[in-house]
Write a structure and sequence with these properties.
The protein has 431 residues and is α/β, with parallel strands linked by helices. The chain folds into 2 domains: 172 residues, no CATH class; 237 residues, no CATH class. Helices cover 47% and strands 15% of the residues. It contains 20 helices and 14 strands. The chain has a 6-stranded parallel β-sheet, with helices on both faces. A two-stranded parallel ribbon has the order 1-5. A hairpin with a 2-residue loop joins β7 and β8. The radius of gyration is 24 Å and the shape is globular. The N and C termini lie far apart (64 Å). It binds uridine-5'-diphosphate. The site of uridine-5'-diphosphate has 14 residues, from α17.
């Protein structure tokens, strides 16, 4: 069968005119051998489940009907009782009814995209998909259709790594997404956190409908800021004074899960910036970049302007000026007429600076964004996607800056887990 690469965007634009050449999604031929190996490993568990079904006079399997993103129907089996009941799906994989990786079962795509895919590629529904992986970690860098496109264009190695990453994410973050509560605001570590999706967060930043006479302040809270706020009550109080706190990183996802909540997004500044720039271009709003080493904010501004034509960067300023220059900096920011101010000086300095000067600022929104400009200027490289897909971006940052990040990650991460899971501090009510 002739192979062609899938480009959903191109096809969706001209889907009535293209030649229909179908190919099969690479990798699915390893499904059966892999499923057999796993069945053999899990045989003792399956025997227990069979015995339990016999004793309780239940049928061995129960059936679940699902519809995948391409509107294809699939019938899945699970054990009626016993251990790891969902592993019965391995028999469905052996029978070729579903693949390990394939079309996601968790959402539906628009009919034109469905039409394009179905006419270009043969792919079954999958128990794992790139979309599900990104959903679990809260990554919002690609649309549903782009994720499916990237997945279906992958080769055998991509197929195998997707299985591996999916198993790792189940191991690290569990599978209980459906049992978690969803709420607009969460109380985590005594702080009121906006449970915003990336879209909600960008809307909050750029929406000028709500008339505020004061600049609204938003912070991204992560493992490091929570650790700092527990060690330093003054910093805790400062975080509480923000108009919005957005949860950033896989540590916060784990903590929210421990508190029984599903986080709607991984709202880190670095993933958010492209969405924010896009919205600023649409709304004709401008950004001011303040912070990082001399020259870094300028470089980041150049990169952003070339990536988002029409983006208005109202000004830049580095973050190593002596204290007595604050007035000058604030005057420059206000004179620029910027709508959104990004302050990148690291925690807790950036949060303290913003709270101290919030009454003097005239922009609509100001955000504390940490090392954001270092990434966009190319000073520090962003972690590869596979590490981000398993929520381990911090490992990359540690490797890049082992000295300065040692305490934060090597000491801070286990401490955060201890405080979350053993001391239960995540459940502290909002003060
Ligand atoms: N920084 C600054 N002024 C200072 C101290 C730090 O502008 O007095 C900058 C530093 O150059 C870096 C950022 O603040 O660009 C801190 O990044 P960090 O990695 O600590 O932030 P994270 O994203 O990890 O919170």
């Amino acid at each position: 069968m002739k192979k062609t690469k899938l480009s959903l965007q191109r096809m969706a634009q001209s889907f009535k005119h293209y030649d229909s050449i179908t190919y099969t999604y690479s990798g699915t031929y390893i499904d059966r051998p892999l499923a057999i190996v796993l069945i053999l490993i899990l045989l003792p568990c399956f025997l227990i489940n069979t015995l339990l079904a016999l004793i309780s006079r239940k049928s061995l399997f129960s059936i679940v009907r699902k519809t995948d993103a391409l509107n294809q129907q699939v019938i899945l089996h699970s054990f009626s009782c016993g251990l790891w009941v969902k592993t019965a799906v391995l028999f469905d994989i052996c029978r070729g009814k579903i693949a390990f990786c394939g079309v996601p079962l968790t959402h539906s795509l628009s009919p034109d995209i469905q039409f394009c895919i179905l006419n270009q590629i043969k792919s079954k529904a999958g128990i794992f998909s790139l979309y599900d992986l990104h959903l679990k970690i809260g990554l919002t860098v690609m649309s549903k259709a782009q994720l499916l496109e990237q997945q279906l264009n992958g080769n055998l190695a991509d197929y195998l790594t997707l299985i591996l990453k999916s198993f790792m994410s189940i191991f690290l973050y569990g599978q209980t997404v459906n049992k978690l509560k969803n709420a607009k605001y969460l109380s985590l570590f005594g702080l009121r956190v906006n449970n915003a999706s990336m879209d909600d967060a960008v809307k909050w930043i750029t929406d000028t409908d709500t008339l505020n006479d004061k600049t609204q302040i938003g912070f991204f809270i992560n493992v490091n800021s929570i650790n700092l706020s527990i060690d330093n009550t003054q910093f805790f109080k400062e975080l509480s004074k923000a108009n919005a706190l957005f949860a950033d990183g896989s540590g916060m996802r784990l903590a929210a899960k421990k508190a029984g909540y599903l986080l709607n997004g991984n709202n880190n500044g670095t993933d958010m910036l492209p969405h924010l720039c896009k919205r600023c271009v649409e709304n004709k709003q401008s950004l001011y970049l303040f912070g990082a080493a001399p020259g870094v904010a300028d470089k980041a501004a150049n990169t952003l302007v070339s990536q988002f034509p029409g983006l208005n960067i109202a000004g830049t300023e580095h973050g190593y000026k002596a204290d007595n220059n604050d007035e000058q900096i604030i005057t420059a920011i206000n004179n620029s007429g910027c709508d959104v101010l990004l302050v990148a000086m690291g925690s807790p300095l950036q949060e303290q600076w913003l709270l101290e000067h919030r009454d003097q600022l005239q922009c609509h929104t100001a955000l504390a964004v940490g090392g954001l400009f270092d990434f966009y200027s190319g000073t520090i490289s962003r972690s590869p996607m596979w590490l981000r897909e398993i929520g381990m971006e911090w490992v990359w940052r540690l490797l890049q800056e082992p000295r300065s990040k040692f305490n934060r990650y090597v000491i801070g991460n286990p401490l955060f887990l201890y405080r979350t899971f053993f001391l239960g501090l995540v459940n502290t009510g909002v003060k």
